[in-house]
Amino acid sequence: MASSEEIQFLILTTLDKQGSIENTDSLRSAVGSPIHYLSVIGVLNSLASKDMVAYTTIEKDHYNLTEEGNEIADSGSHEAKVFNAVHPKDGIAIAELAKQLGAAAKIGQGKAFKNKWIKKDGDKLVREVESIVDQTQLDALEVRRTGTHSNPATLKDLQSRKHVEKVKLISYNVTKGPKFSLTIEKQATDLTAEMLADGSWKTQTFKKYNFAGNPPEGGHLHPLMKVREEFRKIFFELGFEEMPTNKYVESSFWNFDALFQPQQHPARDAHDTFFLLDPATSSNFPDMDYVNRVKEVHSHGGYGSIGYGYDWKIEEAEKLLLRTHTTSVSSNMLYRLAQETKANGGVFKPAKFFSIDRVYRNETVDATHLAEFHQVEGVIADKNLTLGDLIGFMKVFFEKMGVPNIKFKPAFNPYTEPSMEIFSWHPGLEKWVELGNSGMFRPEMLEAMGLDPDVRVIAWGLGLERPTMIKYGLDNIRELLGHKVDLDMIQSNPACRLDKKMGKELVGKDAVDA
Ligand code: PHE
Fold first, then answer.
1. Is 476 left (phi over 0), alpha (psi -120 to 50) or beta?
2. Exposure winner among 141, 171, 211, 438, fewest CB in 10 A?
3. Distance from Cα 461 to the centre of ligand 1, integer Å
4. pLDDT, tens digit, for every residue of 438-450?
C-alpha cells in the first residue's frame, strides 16, 4: 500500500503537471497499483484544510461478483457443469449426476432442460446438442472485467440470482486550491510568546480551527444544579454571601440545640434523623460558655423566656448526625457573626447569608420524597428587623423567582417566632401550593450566641427539588435522582430561568403535590 506521503506527492505532482485530476481512480502507485479511496481522502482533507487543493466526491455504482459468481466465472455455470457431465454418447444416470455434482446437479438440470441442452431418456440424461455456449459464465466474466454489464436486464438477473452485488465506488475530482504549492509549509498550531516577541507571528501561517464534525461531548449540569445556579444568581444579585455547606455530618448541637430545639423534640428521633454509629459523638464544641448558655436557656430560660424546664444533657448534643436542614449551617454562621461583633469591639455589621445544599431525613421514600434532598436557605441579620421586613423581602425574592403571588400562613418552628409558611397560587393545579417556610429566629437562640437583643434575624428555607421538578416537567423524583435517571434528560434540557416559563412546567402535577 502506498503511504500517505507517497499519495500526497503523487497528488501534488499530478496537479502540478495536469492542472487538475479528473478522477483519482486514475492515480497509480509507484508499482502501478490503484490507490484505495480511503487513503486518498485523508490526504485530500489535510491538503484542503491548507487551501492547497479543492475536491469533489464522485460516487459510482460498481458490481462485484459474489462467491457464487466467482465460482461461475472460474469454472462455469451449474447448467454447463451438468451438460459437461452428460457423456456425449452414453449420457448419464440421474442418480450418478447427483453423486458427481452434489447440489449443483439440481439447480443445473432445470436450466439445462430449459436451454434444451439435455433431455430425459428413461432413468438417464442424454445430450440434445453437440456443444453449448455458457452465457452465464460469459456474463460473470464481463462483470468481473468491467464492474458492470452491458445489458441492464442481465445485470438485474445476475443480482437477483445473487451472483453479483452492487457496491458504491468513491473517488475524487481534485483541483488546485488558492495556496497550491508543491511543498507543504508547516503550520503552527499555537501562537506562542516567542512568536509575539520576535515578530514571527506576522509571517507564520496557522493551522485553521476545525469546527466541523460532532460537537464535543462535554459535561452537563444536572437540572438540580441548573436551578441551583439560578438561585445563586438571585442571591448574589441581592448582595448575599454563600455559607460554607461542606459539613454533611453535624453535631446535634448545631443542628438542634443551638436552634433552641428541645432534646425531646420528635425530630430528634432516629425515625426522622440519621444518627452516626461510628463515630457516634463529638465533643468538639466552640466554647463551653456558649454551650452552658444554651443549656441554661433550654433548662431554665433567659432573655425574656421561661425555657423548656427540662434537664439538658450534653451527651444528647454530642450525638453526630447527617444534618436534617441547612439551618445547622446558619446557626453556626450566626454564632460566628456574634464572635466577630465581639472581636470588633461590639460593633455589629449586618449580614446576608445563603446556602443551597443537601440535607438528610430518615423518611419513607415515595414519588416525591427521597431520604436526601436539597435546601435553599437565606438569612438576613440586621438591627430592628420586623416581620414586615420578612414579608416584604419574601415578595422581592419570590418575584425574582418568577412567583408574583405569595401568601403567608402562621406556622411553628422551634427556632423561629413568628413563623410563616409561604404559599403560591399554581395556575396549572388551580390551588395554593407550599413553597417554603420562614420566620424570625428566637431571642433564646440569638442572644445565647451573644448577639445584641436589638439584632433581629429573618430566615427562610425551601426545597430545591420541587421547583426543579416543576421547571423540568418531571412527575417522579426518581426521574431526577438515582439509577433511573435518563442521561439524555440531563444532556438535552436547557438551562433554567426561574423567572421565565419553560413551556412544559405545568406538566409535573405530582411534583407540587408533595
Ligand atoms: N429549617 C427549616 C426546614 O427545614 C426551614 C427554615 C429555615 C425555616 C429558616 C425558618 C427559617 O424546613
1. beta
2. 211
3. 5
4. 999 999 999 999 9
